[in-house]
Amino acid sequence: MPQPANKTRIAAVKVAAYRVPLTRPWVSAAHAITHHEHILVDITLNNGLTGTGWTSTMGTAGTAVEALATTYLAPMLVGRDVHEHEALWSLLWKRSHQPGAGGIGALAVAGFDLAMWDLRGKVAGLPVRKLIGGAADSLEVYASAVNLHLSEAALVDETRAFLDAGNRHFKIKVGRADLDDDLSRVAAVRNVIGKRPLMLDANQRWRPGEALARTSAFARFNPVWMEEPMAADDPENHARLAAVSPVPVALGETLSTRHEFWRYVASGAVHYLQPNALKVGGISEWLKLAHLGACANLNIAPHGALEASAIVAAAIPGCYPVENIDGGSFADQGIVLNPLKIEDGRITLTDEPGTGVAFDRAALAPHRIEPGTEVPLVDPAPFFARD
To answer: How far, in Å, are 115, 133, 148, 151, 386 from residue 154 at the CA level?
Structure first.
């Protein structure tokens, strides 16, 4: 006698990449970014229920992520039970790991991971944040912007607008060629926000000696942290800096694997650990990294990826406020039907089963990209204002 089909087995997987323009460019010490690329993963079960995951890049390698996900990873899931989530994550990671740890592979795995969490939440009738143990119904955010190119006056206006919107935590970019220019900009922002928390982000701008000199110069402004002062794949020099720096060191957005994070944690090279839920392979791995940091009594500060970070931050007691990058949310890009509600520096979490993210497929459709699409390199220099 034939057995009934397992309703939680995966019947089909679809992957598609989209290149969405930002309302205004992001310019840091490292990059000029005009688009985000979002790779959506739809996983459908035998019972017809579909879960959607996503992963994103800042305008680079989206088609490569889609190709890896479609050609090599998606077929591995068909016929498997979605409740085998950890086993499936490991299976996907191992196949992605062979060409190189992290990077494109981790981004691809993240899309599948979020889709499986979305499905498990829908099957259970619970938001993912509660499925993983989160108790908070709202979270504080910090106002962040990729704004190194702005004139000092424009930077002050932007910061004042964030303050007027009810934000109480702020992050700005540093790393201009002239130290006095950087110091003047930080002083101007400090003057606007008063004693409220201020974070600085150098986007891997400096070499070791310069990093110590620059970070020490900013100490007078009492920043919460200096983020990515040097190349993110240099734990040894970060350990030396962290041992003597008058400002705490934050990093993690560029790291992908637990082994990379462990080298930083074990060597005392970081004070604020910033895993990005998409760059590490999804919610499953983010939680492990947060617990790794907690074992070392470090501060956990989720990096970017607002919609995913809001889910995981609720599950980590004492987690630092979630980063809200101006122009970076799905709501800012106009690609979701149910944007997260952010008022007075707090984000209200959804009670919708699953991740709670519903993409506007009609809005995304014009931005569909195919493998082989040529994407020009953007030079950051023309964006910089001259004060």
So the answer is: 40, 42, 11, 5, 11
Q: How far apart are CA 184 and CA 174, in angstroms?
A: 11
Which residue is listed with tokens 């080298």? 263
Q: How far is CA 222 from CA 103, 183, 199, 214, 306, in A?
A: 34, 12, 9, 13, 26
Which residue's entry shows tokens 């085998």? 84
Token pair 């699409």 is at which residue?
A: 373
Nearest to 229 by CA among 195, 197, 242: 242
Rounded Cα gap, residues 82 and 284, in angstroms: 14
Question: Do 282 and 379 belong together in one domain?
Answer: no
For 108-136, what is each residue's pLDDT tens digit?
999 999 999 999 999 999 999 999 988 88
Cβ-Cβ contacts under 8 Å for 17 (sequence gap 6 or more)? 37, 38, 39, 40, 62, 63, 65, 66, 368, 369
Structural domain span for residue 275? 129-354
Is residue 1 a part of any domain in this protein?
A: no
Report the half-sphere exposure of 362 (CA within 13 A, side-chain side): 1
Is 231 part of a structural domain of the chain? yes
In a domain, 2, yes or no: no
Query: CA 121 to CA 220: how far, in whole Å?
Result: 47
Are residues 269 and 243 part of one domain?
A: yes
Q: What is the pLDDT of residues 68-110, one digit of tens each?
A: 999 999 999 999 999 999 999 999 999 998 887 788 999 999 9
- Structural domain total, the chain: 2
- Cα(208)–Cα(229) distance, integer angstroms: 8
Three-class SS state of 154? helix
- Could you tell me if 283 and 203 lie in one domain? yes
